[in-house]
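Postdoc handover notes: sequence design on the structure in folder B. Input tokens:
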């Protein structure tokens, strides 16, 4: 049980009301006395840069425990909160005076079984719902006294009242009072009603490689998100460790900017609060780069009390819920989604090798719907198909003309022009709907491109916090980040673009790779290659389109999205990655560094509520099929309507960028 939080756009519904407790490094310490609620409201002094004001930064120095200072500090916090950019949030430091008790909470969390959860959006270890702590057996509940006390403190009437007051809520006799349509907190900030008593939180551990991509948290009745950090109190967290909470400004309503505008490092006994505003409160958790300092936190939401929605409002928050990232993802369909399959066939020059589908989502977790309001680079509405100039007969290898074979032979490895191999490819494609051809291009061509790609990665570096590295020359950033982030070669193809100055980066190396991949893409859209596709698939492409992209380590990804109303089509992807050593090969193949292409089928339950469930093509519940990144490989997939596709976030620990030349073929069977 459990669900991804800290703004996790995906949430799983707890099926088991209990939390498994494992003994780690001996028996968990027993507390002899009943844990009392924590003193949580005495040291709420913000750090110097917690609040951005129109007239600069302000901090009130105070004496610990001084009631007048505390009241003045809360007043200043509340006064500054609405004007913070990019949207209302605050950072509280030294939240709890008794740090020894908070350290014991951390120790208790280390003894709780946490489940690894991974989708296109996140990778995190998470406990079950902490609201279920009371349902544990007495002996297990006794081992989690401090954690239970912390949970009770965070959802106590006192603390909820404090947070409600801080974020401009009004309470009159325990009921909501809204004075006018526009909040006194400022434009775009809805007037708050008191919170319900609903407990909605869990503990999360982001270890090396853990991350959470851009989203806005707007699901159901959530009003305020909070994150209480429980990192190692004896080790200062640094920017090089990653794991920062990143906040995004808006390009336009409902669309976040390509890169975050500010970030907050996780520090022990600090808390972040922000208002959940559909289509505005976009944030992410940067990948954790360190292997020695896990990012512990307890996080969750305060929910709206069950009140009537005022006339003319789309939801209780007074904001346009259609701008919420989950609603945007449901609102439109695109053609940039791959058909589902249970296994991919890798074709080597020596023959065929079946590849078992990697199984993910094993723990019955559920996740919310994904899709697009703004189409990706593969969307037909933004990337126009170009018709072929002639008709091609659908046949096998024998149907390839001598002229066609000569043109293909200048690009393809000789094995793939052999009639017996083409016949094998045809058989497997008809059975599986997909095929991956390894060692695809002639070795001399592929080696030249791989060397150029390696030079470009060396020039740009693997910088976790430099969102503009690799941009410049003929490469542009492509978003928006709640749907995708990548670099696209040679100008605007789709989505949100940003092309800054090169900033000293040697763009010539990246441009060289882009030009070579563009040549591959043109070949993939040629008449000769069309004849090859006809021979391999038995389908006849009528139109084609494509583009060249780069997914940088520590930066880039594409999210899964809907394709309900899309006609069946073929998708081709030529891939380049660094695989100079067996270690590199193993990293890409394991999926630990991301970069794999994932294909899945949408469940029939999709669209019923905030949460969606996805299944793989073999109908095994909560499983997906994926294709690892392999250099000099060509993957061809038959896409069907109602399927999803994404490329998993490329970790900062990946050996290189993932470089792709993509082609899409509209066909008739």
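Designed sequence:
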């Amino acid at each position: 049980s459990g669900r991804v939080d800290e703004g996790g756009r995906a949430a799983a519904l707890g099926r088991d009301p209990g939390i498994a407790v494992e003994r780690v490094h001996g028996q968990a310490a027993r507390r002899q006395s009943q844990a009392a609620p924590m003193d949580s409201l005495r040291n709420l002094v913000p750090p110097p840069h917690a609040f951005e004001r129109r007239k600069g930064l302000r901090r009130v120095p105070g004496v610990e425990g001084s009631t007048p200072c505390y009241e003045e500090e809360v007043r200043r916090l509340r006064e500054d909160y609405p004007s913070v950019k990019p949207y209302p949030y605050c950072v509280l430091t030294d939240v709890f005076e008794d740090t020894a008790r908070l350290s014991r909470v951390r120790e208790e969390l280390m003894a709780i079984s946490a489940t690894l959860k991974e989708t296109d959006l996140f990778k995190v270890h998470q406990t079950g719902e902490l609201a279920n702590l009371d349902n544990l057996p007495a002996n297990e509940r006794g081992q989690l006294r401090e954690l239970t006390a912390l949970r009770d403190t965070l959802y106590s009437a006192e603390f909820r009242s404090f947070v409600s007051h801080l974020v401009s809520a009004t309470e009159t006799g325990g009921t909501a009072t809204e004075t006018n349509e526009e909040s006194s907190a400022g434009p775009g900030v809805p007037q708050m009603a008191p919170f319900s008593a609903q407990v909605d939180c869990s503990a999360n551990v982001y270890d090396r490689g853990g991350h959470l991509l851009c989203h806005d948290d707007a699901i159901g009745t959530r009003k305020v998100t909070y994150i209480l950090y429980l990192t190692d109190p004896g080790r200062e967290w640094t920017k090089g460790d990653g794991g920062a909470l990143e906040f995004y400004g808006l390009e336009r309503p409902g669309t976040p900017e390509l890169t975050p505008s500010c970030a907050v490092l996780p520090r022990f006994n600090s808390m972040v609060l922000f208002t959940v505003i559909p289509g505005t409160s976009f944030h992410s958790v940067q990948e954790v780069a360190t292997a020695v300092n896990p990012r512990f936190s307890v996080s969750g939401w305060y929910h709206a009390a069950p009140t009537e929605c005022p006339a003319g409002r789309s939801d209780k928050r007074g904001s346009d819920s259609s701008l919420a990232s989950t609603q945007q993802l449901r609102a439109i369909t695109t053609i940039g989604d791959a058909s589902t399959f249970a296994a991919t066939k890798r074709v080597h020059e020596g023959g065929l090798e079946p590849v078992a589908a990697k199984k993910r989502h094993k723990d019955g977790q559920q996740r919310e719907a994904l899709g697009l309001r703004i189409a990706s680079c593969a969307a037909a509405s933004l990337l126009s198909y170009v018709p072929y100039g002639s008709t091609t007969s659908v046949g096998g290898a024998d149907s390839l003309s001598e002229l066609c074979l000569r043109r293909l032979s200048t690009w393809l490895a000789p094995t793939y022009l052999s009639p017996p191999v083409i016949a094998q490819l045809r058989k497997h494609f008809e059975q599986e709907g997909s095929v991956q051809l390894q060692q695809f291009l002639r070795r001399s061509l592929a080696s030249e491109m791989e060397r150029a790609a390696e030079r470009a990665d060396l020039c740009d570096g693997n910088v976790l916090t430099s969102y503009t590295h690799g941009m410049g020359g003929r490469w542009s950033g492509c978003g928006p980040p709640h749907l995708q982030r990548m670099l696209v070669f040679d100008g605007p193809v789709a989505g949100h673009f940003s092309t800054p100055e090169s900033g000293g980066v040697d763009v010539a190396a990246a441009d060289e790779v882009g030009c070579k991949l563009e040549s591959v893409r043109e070949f993939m859209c040629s008449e000769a290659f069309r004849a090859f596709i006809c021979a391999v698939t038995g389908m006849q492409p009528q139109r084609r389109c494509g583009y060249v992209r780069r997914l940088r380590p520590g930066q880039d990804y594409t999210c899964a999205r809907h394709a309900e109303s899309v006609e069946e089509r073929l998708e081709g992807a030529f891939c380049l990655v660094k695989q100079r050593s067996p270690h590199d090969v193993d990293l890409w193949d394991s999926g630990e560094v991301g970069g794999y292409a994932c294909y899945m089928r949408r469940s029939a339950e999709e669209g019923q509520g905030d949460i969606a469930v996805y299944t793989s093509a073999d109908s095994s519940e909560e499983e997906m099929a994926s294709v690892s990144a392999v250099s000099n490989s060509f993957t061809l997939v038959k896409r069907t309507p109602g399927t999803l596709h994404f490329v998993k976030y490329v970790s900062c620990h990946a050996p290189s960028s993932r470089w792709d030349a993509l082609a899409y073929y509209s066909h008739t069977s």
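Context for whoever picks this up: The chain has a mean pLDDT of 74. Don't rerun without checking with the PI first.
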